[in-house]
Specification:
Layout (H helix, E strand, L loop, with lengths): L1 E12 L2 E15 L8 H9 L5 E2 L11 H4 L15 H4 L6 E13 L9 E13 H10 L9 E8 L5 H5 L5 H5 L5 E10 L3 E5 L5 E7 L1 E7 L1 H11 L10 H4 L1 H12 L8 E8 L4 E4 L4 E7 L3 E9 L1
Parallel strand pairs: 2-11
Antiparallel strand pairs: 1-2, 3-12, 4-5, 4-6, 6-7, 7-14, 8-13, 9-12, 9-14, 10-11, 10-13
Helix pairs in contact: 7-9
Length: 306
């Protein structure tokens, strides 16, 4: 549980603003983990009930070939994984949606003992050849706080070359838990501390970690709407828009969900840390935010289904 204070400015008149401090507390409990996957039990207890759950740990390691063919195995020293560029470079001409997040403003430590703290970022989204991402991944310096973060975000599996697409077969639970309708599916790939702000999806979501580690936090529909409204400037909360990825809205959302700030009152949520082969079911109404943790490549795949 976290307990803290945050001062926000409330409008009193059109031209008068005064600070108000608000105390809040939030807590995140661990998402339950299935010991084994029975699709009828999963359907009844989680899919139909609209509750998040982790599938058995490492369940997808031998069910999604991409885990073995795209990435090196985690090292015992630091669990750092790399892209198998010798294999993936043959698909370098493939175009991918790449997000580039660059720190633009920092606050220096007044006594000079700690690195500057980033307060703002510049966000860009480009379609580029996959080869550029591979080159960047080899040269990235995740420990540099001023380095740009590059992330392949929401690249459709259907847009992959057939050989790569075949290495991400649709999991059985996606086809059988609901009506069998797949709304969309995507891959997500970056290096180091990738980040997706608080949002909600248009359909139930099976999220599977392929490489590296990610931490994910979820809150229920009513709490998520309240948290988002506390930070929202404009746009839809069901899309990965630029207003979510840069500026004041990004800062406030991150502080509310991951830090010690936010004029939102008390709330509770659930969380989990995913490693290679782990799968998480995210119900439709649940808001969530995702962070890459550690060094090396981090990659995920998801299926929105109903």
């Amino acid at each position: 549980m976290r307990l803290g204070t945050n001062c926000v400015f409330l409008a009193v008149r059109a031209s008068v603003r005064r600070p108000q401090c608000h105390r809040f507390k939030s807590s995140f409990s661990q998402i339950p983990i299935l010991e084994q996957l029975s699709i009828p039990d999963f359907q009844k207890s989680y899919f139909n009930a609209g509750l998040p759950v982790l599938l058995p740990r490492s369940y997808f390691n031998d069910r999604l070939p991409a885990i073995q063919t795209w990435f090196t195995k985690p090292s015992e020293e630091g669990q750092i994984q790399r892209l198998k560029t010798d294999y993936l470079s043959q698909y370098g001409d493939m175009f991918v949606p790449m997000e580039i997040t660059t720190p633009t403003a920092t606050e220096p430590d007044p006594i000079g003992k700690n690195p500057p703290v980033t307060r703002d970022v510049k966000f860009e989204r480009l379609n580029v050849p996959f080869e550029l991402f591979l080159v960047w991944a080899l040269s990235a310096s995740p420990k540099d706080p001023n380095a740009a973060s590059v992330y392949i975000a929401q690249h459709s599996i259907e847009a992959l070359p057939p050989a790569l697409r075949d290495e991400l077969p649709t999991p059985e639970v996606v086809g059988k838990a609901g009506r069998g309708d797949i709304y969309d599916s995507s891959i997500w790939m970056g290096v180091g501390e990738t980040y997706t702000p608080l949002h909600r999806d248009p359909n139930p979501n099976l999220f599977v970690q392929l490489a590296g580690r990610k931490k994910i936090r979820l809150v229920r529909e009513e709490d998520g709407a309240r948290l988002y409204e506390a930070a929202r400037s404009s746009g839809s909360a069901t899309m990965r828009g630029e207003e979510m990825m840069a500026g004041r809205e990004r800062q406030v959302l991150e502080e509310i969900v991951w830090g010690d700030g936010g004029e939102v009152g008390d709330f509770e949520g659930v969380e989990a840390e995913l490693g290679p082969g782990d799968g998480l079911f995210i119900p439709k109404a649940w808001w969530h935010s995702v962070k890459g943790v550690g060094e090396g490549v981090t990659a995920s795949v998801n299926w929105w289904f109903r």
